[in-house]
């Protein structure tokens, strides 16, 4: 296998300014893909872009708040003007929301969490569906959490959003697998050294859990496999 197996491929990574998104974007760039980086923070995106260039890769930054309903179609239109197909879509961006009893949910925060974790993901799939179908090996990777499948006290807001996200993404995969080369997989990164993890477990020593680069490498290897829609990968 070449050391740049994704040469001439186009990838889009959401939440690419830090953590798993940033590490995945860098890994994809190092593997030869041109990576479109999107997140809300331009400064973080610029740092990731520089890191990709340092590996000999190429990237384009696209600062965007995914909760902005008009932003995703505009992004898709801009990318579609420059490229014919999208080969890799990594749906990484998400919001934790408050860890609280279901009976104490704040309705506005619940709506905001589902807007980013579910509605924005549906908008991304819808906006990039045509480009994914034009790829000869379109791949959609969604990042999830164990609480999406195993309910845990006080994690209901995030867990419910991830359960909905998984169903949404896998339903899309079932819809297109007989009509295109698009394949869909779910990745549960497990305990990983991220800002979200630090917020959820404030007393945890960061060095006690794996760095995001481990997850990024597994995503990269998954893309090189004969991936089938519905594949579920847990990174321990």
What is the topology?
Blueprint: E1 10-14, H1 19-30, E2 34-38, H2 42-54, E3 58-61, H3 71-82, E4 88-91, H4 107-133, E5 139-143, H5 156-176, E6 183-188, H6 195-200, H7 212-223, E7 231-234
Helix pairs in contact: 1-2, 1-7, 3-4, 4-5
List keywords for this structure.
single chain, 236 residues, alpha/beta, Rossmann fold, seven-stranded parallel β-sheet
Would you tell me the structural class of the helices and strands? alpha/beta
Q: What global shape is seen? A: globular
CATH class: Alpha Beta
Count of beta strands: 7
**What are the low-pLDDT stretches, counting only 5+ consecutive residues below 50?**
none
Named CATH topology: Rossmann fold
Taking Cα atoms only, what radius of gyration do you get, to the nearest Å? 17 Å
The helicity comes to 40-55%
Strand coverage percent: 5-15%
The total tally of domains equals 1
Element string (H = helix, E = strand): EHEHEHEHEHEHHE
- On the 0 to 100 scale, the average pLDDT is 97
- Enumerate the strands of the largest sheet in spatial order, edge to edge or round the barrel: 3-2-1-4-5-6-7
Q: What is the CATH homology-level superfamily?
A: NAD(P)-binding Rossmann-like Domain
Number of helices: 7
Structural notes for this entry:
The protein is an alpha/beta fold and 236 residues long. It has a single domain (10-234), classed as NAD(P)-binding Rossmann-like Domain (Rossmann fold), CATH 3.40.50. It has helices spanning 19-30, 42-54, 71-82, 107-133, 156-176, 195-200, 212-223; strands at residues 10-14, 34-38, 58-61, 88-91, 139-143, 183-188, 231-234. It has a seven-stranded parallel beta sheet, with helices on both faces. α1 (19-30) runs parallel beside α2 (42-54), α1 packs across α7 (212-223) and α3 (71-82) runs parallel beside α4 (107-133). The mean pLDDT is 97.
């Amino acid at each position: 296998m070449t050391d740049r197996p994704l040469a001439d491929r186009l990838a889009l990574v959401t939440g690419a300014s830090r953590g798993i998104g940033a590490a995945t974007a860098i890994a994809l760039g190092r593997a030869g893909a041109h990576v479109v980086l999107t997140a809300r923070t331009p400064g973080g995106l610029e740092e990731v872009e520089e890191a990709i260039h340092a590996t000999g890769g190429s990237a384009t930054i696209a600062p965007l708040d995914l909760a902005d309903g008009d932003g995703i179609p505009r992004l898709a239109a801009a990318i579609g003007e420059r490229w014919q197909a999208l080969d890799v879509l990594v749906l990484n961006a998400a919001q934790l929301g408050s860890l609280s009893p279901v009976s104490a949910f704040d309705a506005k925060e619940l709506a905001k969490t589902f807007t980013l974790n579910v509605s924005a993901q549906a908008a991304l799939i819808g906006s990039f569906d045509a480009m994914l179908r034009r790829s000869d090996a379109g791949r959609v990777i969604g990042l999830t959490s164990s609480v999406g499948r195993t309910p845990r006290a006080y994690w209901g807001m995030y867990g419910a959003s991830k359960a909905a996200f998984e169903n949404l993404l896998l339903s899309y995969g079932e819809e297109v697998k007989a009509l295109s080369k698009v394949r869909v997989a779910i990745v549960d990164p497990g305990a990983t050294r991220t800002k979200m993890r630090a917020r959820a477990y404030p007393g945890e020593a960061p060095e006690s859990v794996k760095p995001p680069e481990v997850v990024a490498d597994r995503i990269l290897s998954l893309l090189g496999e004969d991936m089938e829609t519905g594949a579920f990968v847990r990174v321990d």
